[in-house]
């Protein structure tokens, strides 16, 4: 069945306001959008924190029995309710049968990661044999770079955005030093133009074209952690490979947020965490992708027992039979207690589908943008202070669900007042507050309440004194 044409957020708001004969900022618009949301039932599959359990609330400003306004899925996703059940199943199995748990049950421990890897296929757009679930993100990044970064005197650079996540920055620095190279010469960072927050694609492609012959690896974010910019992964991949570079991506803020097609795009390698949009809990089991075209040409630099073919693994003859492709990069047995939370979340993604989630995300984040502009943009307030600036790209193709906000007043004061009122978002240096309405469990009414609270904070004389 073909899906209906995508309704843009501004068109949805106009349609509903016409039907209800109300102002676009009316609460009834948010409630109607929630009524029309075909994915709204997934909210009931998660635990939503209560106001009373948040450490920073002011009890005089909130109803302690209400749900918090949780807009921080870009940092830590909420807990799926089935996590406890799946963990208890494995704890029960361990208690009752000990080591036999390696071979029986819906998640035999010896293949715990493999038992759920198929649920990742549609989320990252890859074949099952191209995906592996293991370790943590930066560990996987190091393992991949050890195999894909093979510098020569002529081709020795790694290209990345200047404001990459610190962990990526440190990993790249250390990989360059590991090869005895000068970081200043081999670490090529692209900065936004003067006075701009995000990178222009034409500038990225220009650097690749002009310097590609000296670049060994291009490593970009899928979605930039600070600005929320969704990079054009297929264009960067095509341009880099045309110059002979390997092209990889850190998908920490992209996986489970935007639609990905890693196989079809021809990406060489990628890695991601799972505790943000994939809701696997703090320090959850991470993932990696190696395109099948490299299955027999790119081998892991470091190997372990779980990279050995399962059919002969227990011969214990110390004669490595390396699994081709991504699975050969596995080193140790999967941590089954980390498999369980990820399993619970991935099942929800399979039921919802990334296509449907992305459609809702465009509408949900677009509604947030629309409401912010109604109250706090230069165009609608006539430059009246205080103003809210959205540094995340406005084109839906260039962003996921996160919007990064800056203010014409002190960000610290705004953030503290939001915390007191039970809004869970985060601040990032130098001056941004990141807000991420997640389509699996956030509602349009969450967005409405957030904007109303933010507006009250910015407009109140009491709050202005703390700015």
Automatic annotation (TrEMBL):
<comment type="pathway">
    <text>Amino-acid degradation; L-kynurenine degradation; L-alanine and anthranilate from L-kynurenine: step 1/1.</text>
</comment>
<dbReference type="InterPro" id="IPR015422">
    <property type="entry name" value="PyrdxlP-dep_Trfase_small"/>
</dbReference>
<feature type="binding site">
    <location>
        <position position="250"/>
    </location>
    <ligand>
        <name>pyridoxal 5'-phosphate</name>
    </ligand>
</feature>
<feature type="binding site">
    <location>
        <begin position="165"/>
        <end position="168"/>
    </location>
    <ligand>
        <name>pyridoxal 5'-phosphate</name>
    </ligand>
</feature>
<feature type="binding site">
    <location>
        <position position="305"/>
    </location>
    <ligand>
        <name>pyridoxal 5'-phosphate</name>
    </ligand>
</feature>
<dbReference type="InterPro" id="IPR015421">
    <property type="entry name" value="PyrdxlP-dep_Trfase_major"/>
</dbReference>
<dbReference type="GO" id="GO:0019805">
    <property type="term" value="P:quinolinate biosynthetic process"/>
</dbReference>
<dbReference type="Pfam" id="PF22580">
    <property type="entry name" value="KYNU_C"/>
</dbReference>
<keyword id="KW-0963">Cytoplasm</keyword>
<dbReference type="GO" id="GO:0005654">
    <property type="term" value="C:nucleoplasm"/>
</dbReference>
<dbReference type="InterPro" id="IPR015424">
    <property type="entry name" value="PyrdxlP-dep_Trfase"/>
</dbReference>
<keyword id="KW-0663">Pyridoxal phosphate</keyword>
<feature type="binding site">
    <location>
        <position position="221"/>
    </location>
    <ligand>
        <name>pyridoxal 5'-phosphate</name>
    </ligand>
</feature>
<dbReference type="GO" id="GO:0019441">
    <property type="term" value="P:L-tryptophan catabolic process to kynurenine"/>
</dbReference>
<dbReference type="GO" id="GO:0034354">
    <property type="term" value="P:'de novo' NAD+ biosynthetic process from L-tryptophan"/>
</dbReference>
<dbReference type="GO" id="GO:0005829">
    <property type="term" value="C:cytosol"/>
</dbReference>
<dbReference type="GO" id="GO:0042803">
    <property type="term" value="F:protein homodimerization activity"/>
</dbReference>
<feature type="binding site">
    <location>
        <position position="275"/>
    </location>
    <ligand>
        <name>pyridoxal 5'-phosphate</name>
    </ligand>
</feature>
<comment type="similarity">
    <text>Belongs to the kynureninase family.</text>
</comment>
<keyword id="KW-0007">Acetylation</keyword>
<dbReference type="GO" id="GO:0034516">
    <property type="term" value="P:response to vitamin B6"/>
</dbReference>
<comment type="pathway">
    <text>Cofactor biosynthesis; NAD(+) biosynthesis; quinolinate from L-kynurenine: step 2/3.</text>
</comment>
<dbReference type="GO" id="GO:0034341">
    <property type="term" value="P:response to type II interferon"/>
</dbReference>
<dbReference type="GO" id="GO:0030170">
    <property type="term" value="F:pyridoxal phosphate binding"/>
</dbReference>
<feature type="binding site">
    <location>
        <position position="138"/>
    </location>
    <ligand>
        <name>pyridoxal 5'-phosphate</name>
    </ligand>
</feature>
<dbReference type="GO" id="GO:0030429">
    <property type="term" value="F:kynureninase activity"/>
</dbReference>
<dbReference type="GO" id="GO:0097053">
    <property type="term" value="P:L-kynurenine catabolic process"/>
</dbReference>
<feature type="binding site">
    <location>
        <position position="333"/>
    </location>
    <ligand>
        <name>pyridoxal 5'-phosphate</name>
    </ligand>
</feature>
<protein>
    <recommendedName>
        <fullName>Kynureninase</fullName>
        <ecNumber>3.7.1.3</ecNumber>
    </recommendedName>
</protein>
<comment type="subunit">
    <text>Homodimer.</text>
</comment>
<dbReference type="GO" id="GO:0005739">
    <property type="term" value="C:mitochondrion"/>
</dbReference>
<keyword id="KW-0662">Pyridine nucleotide biosynthesis</keyword>
<feature type="modified residue" description="N6-(pyridoxal phosphate)lysine">
    <location>
        <position position="276"/>
    </location>
</feature>
<dbReference type="InterPro" id="IPR010111">
    <property type="entry name" value="Kynureninase"/>
</dbReference>
<feature type="binding site">
    <location>
        <position position="253"/>
    </location>
    <ligand>
        <name>pyridoxal 5'-phosphate</name>
    </ligand>
</feature>
<dbReference type="GO" id="GO:0043420">
    <property type="term" value="P:anthranilate metabolic process"/>
</dbReference>
<comment type="function">
    <text>Catalyzes the cleavage of L-kynurenine (L-Kyn) and L-3-hydroxykynurenine (L-3OHKyn) into anthranilic acid (AA) and 3-hydroxyanthranilic acid (3-OHAA), respectively. Has a preference for the L-3-hydroxy form. Also has cysteine-conjugate-beta-lyase activity.</text>
</comment>
<keyword id="KW-0378">Hydrolase</keyword>
<feature type="binding site">
    <location>
        <position position="137"/>
    </location>
    <ligand>
        <name>pyridoxal 5'-phosphate</name>
    </ligand>
</feature>
